[in-house]
Amino acid sequence: MERLTTTCCVVGGGPAGMMLSYLLARSGVSVILLEKHPDFFRDFRGDTIHPSTLDILFELNLLDEFLALPHDEIDFVRLNVDRKLYPVADLSHLKTKCKFVALIPQWDFLNFMATRAKKFPEFNLLLQTEATDLLFEGDRVVGVKASSRNGEVEIRADLVVGTDGRHSLIRDKAGLKSKSFGVPIDVLWMRIPRPPNPPENNLAYITQGLFMVLIERKDYYQTAYLIPKGEFKQIQEGGLEAFRAKIVGIAPFLTPTIGEIDSWDKVKLLTVVIDRLQKWHRPGLLCIGDAAHAMSPAGGVGINLAIQDAVATANALAHKLREQTSTEQDLAAIQERRLKPTKTIQAMQVLVHQQLINTNPSSTKRLAFLLSVVRFFPFVRHYIAKFIGVGPLPEHVRTAPP
Ligand SMILES: Cc1cc2nc3c(=O)[nH]c(=O)nc-3n(C[C@H](O)[C@H](O)[C@H](O)COP(=O)(O)OP(=O)(O)OC[C@H]3O[C@@H](n4cnc5c(N)ncnc54)[C@H](O)[C@@H]3O)c2cc1C
């Protein structure tokens, strides 16, 4: 068994874990970041980097390098509902450095942050290392057990941070209780090749209870197709032909390439969850990001929220971890600070799923009606842009290299 010691062990190299590890290492705090996969090259992550996250990259002097990576910029969100285009959010009025959402495969974002973090000697990334349990001394968490290609690893740390996403093992092992909020949908996730001469992409296509999002990648659309929760098996029993027909029914321009979906192996089921821990911490341990509050894809805000949690955590703890003076009250203060924005955004997601984003045709009608009203009120589009693009209580980097 390999034994390692560090100041902070972060479990999970998603947006929350990567940003927190970067910020702590930059502040001179020794960090071990565990990621169970061998790389960041996975599809089911969401591709949105929001204006408030871009502000954070600016504050870290990383923005220009980041924007040099291939990406798309969305400054005006439109939805295609029953084949009519509706304006939804206008980001051009935001008071942020970048007045757009950057669409970039998330593995590019994570690789970018990991490469920059490796410049700090205090940053240690252990890929293909999966946390399997927590180490306790009495009531206090004092580290993590993990398994890697080379066998078992025990990592002792002053603080463990669970950033292992919506199926968090760390929250379970810590005995932290969560409250779940019903979501009526799951998502089928697949790659549909882009046809020759495709029309301008409107991101979301909604018609009579069918809801699909197309994220443009080089030669394919990363496609998210909403289904009623728990009904994937029934859809499979209906056959691929019927499934393909539904998709083409929403976006007829996919007719030439939909044949590429010729096996259910090409269609991944992503279960959608909204939940929140009652307590995000216990002595020696904190959960943030989806591990503390799982987010649905609605509004594409989960990544931003996870990153804001990470910045708030680093702001509160970097100095104290360096000086070994952090206490459980500091962890409680982080929960208190991040609870209000989290509650606000989750309440919005729950409402939106109940009323607008689900597979009920009457919701599509309601959505079309609301959007036809929004069309006449530009200030509503500005407000939606602020809520989605910046969110409540945006955080700013208050840490610095030692
Ligand atoms: C279908 C779907 C689409 C979405 N689309 C978007 C979108 O477009 N935009 C958006 O903002 N949000 C989107 N979201 C929400 C978003 O994915 C999450 O809110 C966000 O990823 C949370 O970031 P995180 O860092 O907390 O966790 P995650 O991104 O889930 O990262 C957790 C990391 O921990 C690793 N891990 C897990 N267990 C262990 C372990 N035991 N040991 C070591 N490593 C471990 C995982 O491999 C992963 O890398 C979507 C959600 C769903 C379900």
- The low-confidence parts are none
* CATH class category of the largest domain: Alpha Beta
Average per-residue pLDDT, rounded, comes to 94
How many distinct beta strands? Answer: 20
Give me the CATH architecture of the largest domain, please. Answer: 3-Layer(bba) Sandwich
Residue share in β-strands: 25-35%
- Number of helices, where a helix is a run of at least 4 consecutive DSSP H or I residues: 11
Classified in CATH, the superfamily of the largest domain is FAD/NAD(P)-binding domain
Provide the CATH topology of the largest domain: FAD/NAD(P)-binding domain
Counted up, domains total 2
Q: Class by helix and strand content?
A: alpha+beta
Write the layout of secondary structure elements.
Layout: E1 2-11, H1 15-26, E2 31-34, E3 48-49, H2 51-59, H3 63-67, E4 72-74, E5 76-81, E6 84-90, E7 101-103, H4 106-117, E8 123-126, E9 129-137, E10 140-148, E11 151-162, H5 169-173, E12 178-181, E13 185-193, E14 204-207, E15 210-216, E16 220-228, H6 232-237, H7 240-250, E17 268-271, E18 274-277, E19 281-282, E20 285-287, H8 302-323, H9 328-355, H10 361-374, H11 378-389
Parallel strand pairs: 1-2, 1-11, 2-8, 5-14, 11-20
Antiparallel strand pairs: 3-7, 4-7, 5-6, 9-10, 10-11, 12-18, 13-16, 13-17, 14-15, 15-16, 19-20
Bound molecules: flavin-adenine dinucleotide (FAD).
